[in-house]
Structures are given as structure tokens and as C-alpha cells.
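FORM 12-B: Structure-to-Sequence Request
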């Protein structure tokens, strides 16, 4: 039996929102916190929150957050008795856990053997099968030749899942639908696995069509006590990574809940697990479930479990690591209500969820309440870095049942306002309003299956156009009044946005841009201070009132008798509107003589769709390529992206070499001009 050990200082070997999350609980427990930070995170939120913080290296995680020796050195120098690894980075690194043990520092996580056994998927499948946990059969053999793997894939039957044995978080995972794409998918999975885990050993599994991803939160202590804290559904995913999670899983009966929970506990017992762990299952349409993997750490989505069980799992982690027993028995755990977690990412869902990077010029989350949590590691003005995951925050909501919780989620998403880079918020709004999602009919193919309805044609409603136009004119009027006060000359024509006094039936022509689409409007100023807006052959009678609310302005409009309310932010040449339809950005085009600033190369070059690092060059100068051929591989936000030829042609030049960081819009591959280009 382990002896309890006092922990009064903990080092958090992580960054971002999970580091902030651990620091909050540590402070609540009276435990001092030590942060570490890379050069890119010098001014980050987790550094500001911690009791003390120490520089650990350059921006690249391999040179900072993955440096075992530096982290242990700082822990010893600061007197930290324990290290909390968060998730990602070193959280599932058995060697690091062993090093902590040798140095007499408590690793707040499971024993190294449990990490090692569950980290190698072929080993974990064998252990689970022996423990009576249902598993999907596949190939987990030592012969890793391409030919043998392809032969085994044929035996299993397509589609097959190709997975890195040390994988996690969707890394090193590909789906091969047929023999024709197997070689390409295998090569890509191996390359990403080697980059992420320094190991490219693969396993194969039969891929269940439209499965559900249901996982169980388990907890064990050093006294052989185990509990499961019910299940989470994490089925809705893109690029094999979760977008939205909920607990409990919709449609799961109490009988299935008990069965899958007990199977998860058997899995934990089989490896003498200690601390927080998650046993992931794939579930078919008949609620049969099969072991997929065990994540030997705290999961990103752990807050939904906390919400339905009224627990603090980080507090449990620290207490269990100190040698204390679990605070409750299984019979004392009660499932209450329903919770959702939506991951707010810096990415462009309309461009295959391409990750983004850049400054958060404006950030206004919904108000935190007892049933609304904002788990974040960034503030307004902070930078979403190309070096790390593009997550901005996790929005977590709870209510007494699924319907009420989903209603709260929708309202909270609409109140999440971000400017400065593309986000997935509008997509999450569409997802949460989707009829099939509302019914709980979720599976891992949900997004591709419902692509048409989840990605509707981008078109602004006339009401939104009217709101933007009136907001802009009212804003200009406020500027005019302010200028008149400053110049003390209210009669000057230069203090009027239209260059003259506003008289009866004055007409103002206005052009706005929604992306590349021009919107021509005509506003008539009426004597009763209302406007008549002419747009697309229709006219609308509009009154509006623009009131400051912090850095935003609230616009209350009455459009043909219908009252609407929006938040408006004016930034540069853009008007940003946030209302019940989501967010919209309309630009005021610059004069023609200023040019468009376009980076369109007319198909004469392949340009970078995002900031990233060149990982592999697939072509050389002089090579002939066809449209769609792979040109190079980029790494951005820990993901691998293949840049393909925009046209057939001959490669003229590759300005960047492997290992170079390039900005968005950079010319990556130039083509020789041909007759059509001339």
C-alpha cells in the first residue's frame, strides 16, 4: 500500500488551456503552480496565471515542451514535488514517467507500464481480449512490409483503418477505401506517425461503416479501487479529431451504460491503472461496442464528465497521485443532466477545416455561469501560433436534459464573438441546429454525410445586409458628430460623412463586399430619421439605434416592423455583425486606384493556404505534373497537409526547402509559362 505524500507545488508540463485548467484547480487546493513556456508562449495566459514560470526553449515543441531533462531540471530547482503533464506532449510518455519516478518526483498519471501497454495498440488489444473486453479483430503483426500489410488488408476486407500502434488524437491514422489508395494512405500514415511518435509501426482494423465513438471515463487509485464516471459520445469528428462531445451518449440504455462502464473498469484493472483514463470504444448501430484504445491521460473533453457528475477530475488526479483513495464508490456516483462541449478552433470549415494562425484581434466569449464553462488559454490580442494546436477554447454547457443543454449550447455559440482569423463557430451553430444532431443520430461519418446542409451556400439575408448598411451609416454619423465637437465647427462640410448637410430625401449610394461578391445599396434618409434601403430591387423601411457596449456596439433595428438585435464591431474597412444567424463580415471596398491587394496567381503557382513548415518535397524543377499531383507536404498545427498541383504543367522553381516556415499566401511552387498563360 502506497504512503500518502504531500504535494504543495506542482509543475505543469504543458501550455494553453489545459495548463490554465490545472493551475485553477491547484490554486483552489492551495497548491502553488510552476509553468514552463517556449519562446512563442513567453506572454501567454498560462504564464501569467502561474505562481512562477520558466523558459524552456524555442517555439518548436521538440525543443521545448518535449524536453524531458529540462522539465525535470526546472521541477527540482523550483522544489515542485509533482508534475502534471496535461494532455498531449509528455502525458503518455512512459520514459518520462519513469524518469520522474527515478528523480523522486510524482508523475500525476498512470504507472509507466500501463502507459506502455496501452500505448502500443497491438499489445493493448491482446490485453483487452484476455480481460474479457470486446475487441475488433485485425492485423497487429510484426511483419511491417508494405506488401504484407496490403495482403492483410485484402483479407480483412475494405474499407480498412490504418493506425499507428503508438498513435493518438487522430495522428498516424488513415482510412483506405480500396486497394487503389492503400499505398498512398499507408505512406501518409507512416510519415505522420514517425513525425509525431518517432515510430511508424502500423496495425490494421476492419473499419465499421458509420460507427459511433463512445468512450468511458475511468479512475483508479493506488489501493485497487476503480470507478467509471459514465460515457461520453465523441462521434462527430473531422480529420478523425473530435469537434463536439456530449455526456451521456444519446440513446444509450441503462443496461448498455452499465455494460460498457464495467468493461472499461475491467480494462483499467487489467493494467493496474492509477489516475484518470479513458477507454474508447467503437459502437455500431445495434449498440454493440468494441475496444478501440485506452488514453492514459486526462482527455480534452473531460469537462462534460465533470458537469454530469459534479466532480473536479484534476483534483481527483492530484489526490490519487498523493496516495489518497478515490473519494467515492461506484454506487455513490450519480449521473445528473446532460452536457455538451464544443471545441472552438482557428480554422476554415469551408476550406476542408484548414487550420489558421494569427492574432485574436477581438475576443468576446459568452458569460461564464454555473452551467457555462469557457476553458481557454488565450486572451484578446494573443496569437494562435502555427507551432501548436489551433484550439481557441472549449465551450462547455450543462442543463437538466439533452434538449435543454442543446438549446443552451446554441445560444452560447451565437454569443461567442471572434475577429482576426477564421473560426469554426458558424459551422458549430449549423451543426447544433441540424435536425439529425438534435435527434441524437450521430456517427463518425456525420459531417461528410450531411455536408450539403452543414455547409450551406454562403448568402447574406436582406435583413443582415440592411443591418450592416444602417450600422455603418450610424457609425459614420457618430464619427461626424465627434469631429464636429473636436473642430468646434459643426457647419463645416468636412464634418459630414456625405460631404454636405443631411437634408430631406438625401440619397447615399453604398457598396459593400461579402467575400468576392459586391453588394450595391441605396439609402434614402427620411425626415423621421428612418432609412429606406434599396437592395436587389426591393426596398426596406429601417430605423436603427447604435449603442456602445464595451468594445462592441449593440444595434437594435426595426426592419419593416420586425425588430432585430445584433452586436457590431467596426475594424479597419470591415463591419462585423453577430446575430441569431451567426457571424458575418462585410467590407467597404477601397477606391479602385488603391488596387485589390489580391494574391491570386492565376494558376501560375501553388500558394500556401496557411502558415506552416515544409515537411517533404515531392517534385523538382523541370518535372512535369498533372493537375492534382502531390507537390509537397506541409505541417501546420501538428497536422499534415498535401499541396497538390492546381494545373498540369512543368515545375519552374520551388522557393522554399524542407524545414522552412512559410506564411499564408507564400508561393510554394512556380510553373513554367505556357502558351495559354502568355
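FORM 12-B RESPONSE
SEQUENCE OUT:
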Amino acid at each position: 500500500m502506497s504512503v500518502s505524500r504531500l504535494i504543495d507545488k506542482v509543475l505543469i508540463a504543458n501550455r494553453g488551456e489545459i495548463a490554465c485548467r490545472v493551475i485553477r484547480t491547484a490554486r483552489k487546493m492551495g497548491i502553488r503552480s510552476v509553468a514552463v513556456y517556449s519562446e512563442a508562449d513567453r506572454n501567454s495566459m498560462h504564464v501569467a496565471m502561474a505562481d512562477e514560470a520558466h523558459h524552456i526553449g524555442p517555439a518548436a515543441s521538440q525543443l521545448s515542451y518535449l524536453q524531458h531533462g529540462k522539465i525535470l531540471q526546472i521541477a527540482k530547482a523550483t522544489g515542485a514535488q509533482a508534475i502534471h503533464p496535461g494532455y498531449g506532449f509528455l502525458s503518455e510518455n512512459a520514459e518520462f514517467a519513469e524518469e520522474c519516478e527515478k528523480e523522486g518526483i510524482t508523475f500525476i498519471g498512470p504507472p509507466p507500464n500501463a502507459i506502455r501497454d496501452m500505448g502500443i495498440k497491438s499489445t493493448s488489444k491482446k490485453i483487452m481480449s484476455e480481460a474479457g473486453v470486446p475487441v475488433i479483430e485485425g492485423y497487429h503483426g510484426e511483419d511491417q512490409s508494405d506488401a504484407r500489410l496490403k495482403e492483410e488488408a485484402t483479407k480483412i476486407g475494405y474499407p480498412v483503418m490504418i493506425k499507428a500502434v503508438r498513435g493518438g488524437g487522430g495522428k498516424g491514422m488513415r482510412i483506405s477505401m480500396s486497394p487503389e489508395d492503400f499505398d498512398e494512405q499507408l505512406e501518409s500514415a507512416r510519415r505522420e506517425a514517425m513525425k509525431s511518435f518517432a515510430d511508424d509501426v502500423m496495425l490494421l482494423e476492419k473499419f465499421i461503416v458509420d460507427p459511433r465513438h463512445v468512450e468511458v471515463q475511468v479512475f483508479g487509485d493506488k489501493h485497487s479501487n476503480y470507478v467509471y464516471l459514465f460515457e461520453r459520445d465523441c462521434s462527430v469528428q473531422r480529420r478523425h479529431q473530435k469537434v463536439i462531445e456530449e455526456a451521456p451518449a444519446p440513446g444509450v440504455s441503462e443496461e448498455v451504460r452499465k455494460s460498457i462502464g464495467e468493461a472499461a473498469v475491467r480494462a483499467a484493472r487489467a493494467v493496474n491503472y492509477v489516475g484518470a483514463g479513458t477507454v474508447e470504444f467503437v459502437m455500431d448501430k445495434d449498440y454493440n461496442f468494441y475496444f478501440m484504445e485506452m488514453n492514459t491521460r486526462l482527455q480534452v473533453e473531460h469537462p462534460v464528465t465533470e458537469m454530469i457528475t459534479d466532480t473536479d477530475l484534476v483534483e481527483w488526479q492530484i489526490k490519487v497521485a498523493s496516495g489518497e483513495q478515490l473519494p467515492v464508490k461506484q454506487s455513490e456516483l450519480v449521473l445528473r443532466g446532460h452536457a455538451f462541449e464544443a471545441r472552438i478552433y482557428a480554422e476554415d470549415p469551408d476550406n476542408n477545416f484548414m487550420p489558421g494562425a494569427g492574432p485574436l484581434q477581438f475576443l468576446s466569449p459568452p458569460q461564464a455561469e454555473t452551467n457555462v464553462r469557457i476553458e481557454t488559454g488565450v486572451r484578446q490580442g494573443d496569437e494562435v501560433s502555427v507551432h501548436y494546436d489551433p484550439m481557441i477554447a472549449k465551450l462547455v454547457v450543462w442543463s437538466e436534459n439533452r434538449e435543454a443543454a442543446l438549446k443552451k449550447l446554441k445560444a452560447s455559440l451565437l454569443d461567442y464573438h471572434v475577429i482576426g482569423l477564421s473560426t469554426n463557430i458558424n459551422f458549430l451553430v449549423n451543426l447544433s441546429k441540424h435536425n439529425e444532431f438534435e435527434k441524437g443520430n450521430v456517427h463518425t461519418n456525420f459531417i461528410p454525410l450531411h455536408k450539403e446542409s452543414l455547409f450551406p451556400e454562403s448568402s447574406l439575408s436582406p435583413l443582415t445586409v440592411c443591418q450592416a448598411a444602417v450600422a455603418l451609416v450610424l457609425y459614420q454619423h457618430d464619427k461626424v458628430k465627434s469631429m464636429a465637437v473636436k473642430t468646434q465647427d459643426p457647419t463645416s462640410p468636412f464634418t459630414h460623412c456625405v460631404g454636405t448637410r443631411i437634408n430631406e430625401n438625401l440619397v447615399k449610394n453604398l457598396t459593400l463586399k461579402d467575400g468576392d461578391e459586391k453588394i450595391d445599396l441605396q439609402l434614402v434618409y427620411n425626415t423621421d430619421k428612418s432609412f429606406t434601403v434599396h437592395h436587389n430591387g426591393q426596398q426596406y423601411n429601417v430605423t436603427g439605434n447604435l449603442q456602445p457596449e464595451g468594445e462592441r456596439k449593440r444595434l437594435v433595428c426595426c426592419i419593416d416592423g420586425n425588430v432585430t438585435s445584433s452586436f457590431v464591431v467596426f475594424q479597419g474597412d470591415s463591419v462585423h455583425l453577430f446575430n441569431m444567424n451567426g457571424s458575418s463580415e462585410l467590407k467597404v471596398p477601397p477606391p479602385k486606384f488603391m488596387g485589390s491587394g489580391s494574391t491570386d496567381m492565376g494558376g501560375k503557382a501553388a500558394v500556401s493556404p496557411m502558415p506552416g513548415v515544409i515537411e517533404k518535397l515531392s517534385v523538382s524543377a523541370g518535372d512535369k505534373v498533372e493537375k492534382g499531383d502531390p507537390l509537397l507536404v506541409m505541417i501546420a498545427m501538428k497536422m499534415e497537409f498535401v499541396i497538390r498541383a492546381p494545373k498540369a504543367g512543368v515545375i519552374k522553381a520551388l522557393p522554399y526547402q524542407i524545414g522552412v516556415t512559410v506564411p499564408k499566401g507564400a508561393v510554394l511552387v512556380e510553373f513554367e509559362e505556357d502558351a495559354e498563360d502568355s
